[in-house]
Design a protein that fits this description.
This protein has one domain: Rossmann fold (3-Layer(aba) Sandwich), CATH 3.40.50. A seven-stranded mixed beta sheet has the order 3-2-1-4-5-7-6. Helices cover 42% and strands 18% of the residues. It is an alpha/beta fold.
Amino acid sequence: MSRLTEKDYWNAVYLGALTTPKRSRPKAKPSPGLKTTLKQHLSQYWRDYSDYQEWEGIYESFLPKTSGLKVIEIGSAPGTNLVRLHQTFGYDPYGVEYAESGANLNRDVFSQHGLNPNNVIRADAFSEGFLTRYEGYFDLVISRGFIEHFTEMDKVIEAHLRLLKPGGKLLVTIPRLIGVPHLLFRLFHPEIIPMHNLNIMSKKSFASLFRRAGLQSHFCNYYGTFKVHVCGAEHLSGYQATVMNFLMNCQLVLNMLFRLAFGKHGAESYAFSPYLIYIGTKTR
């Protein structure tokens, strides 16, 4: 399996999350009045528009509503997405991580939310031992920002499908580092670009990954419309940090405008959309 990132890279990423002190924030005490009421109602429109589309539009339309279904996320750290799936749909969450710090962080997040930390498996998701142990075990198999770190796509997708029961749902999302998003990364974090497989980041090439026997497609498209997002932006300094802060403040306004103008459907395009998503059913 040809990887575009190394385990040491992910260990460093998640070790930083583990060792960063948790800051407790005082609870806000809302005061009555028109200003507070308007702020509370408007804040929902500042929410990340891609997140709104994903959860309120796509997930709500295509994911099963049956509580207790077993879901696994491949490359699951920090685990917050699985917690949210549990809270939203009642799924029984599992995660697999091959970086030790990522697995530890995921277990910590599970424990904090009353979920079984033993459901986080530290393993190489492509190892025969792991795939044999959990073959056909899950009702949903999810990966988010995972497959773009590899080059051998057939092996990557087949690993996802081996974990899935017949009749189970496959959900795969990737970020896009082409078009305008490529320009943002080129300006603010160029060293991360070679860690991604840019060849799968058009809708046509992404959709082709899932055209295979035994898989019925339900939805495949861009989403998010436009998003100012660069991995590691919190570590920028100097003029780069100043410019990024300005752009991210502008994004809050765009989130509101997109939601008012497009609702859950967005105005998606090759040039601007920040994400791709696929949802399908394993038929055999």
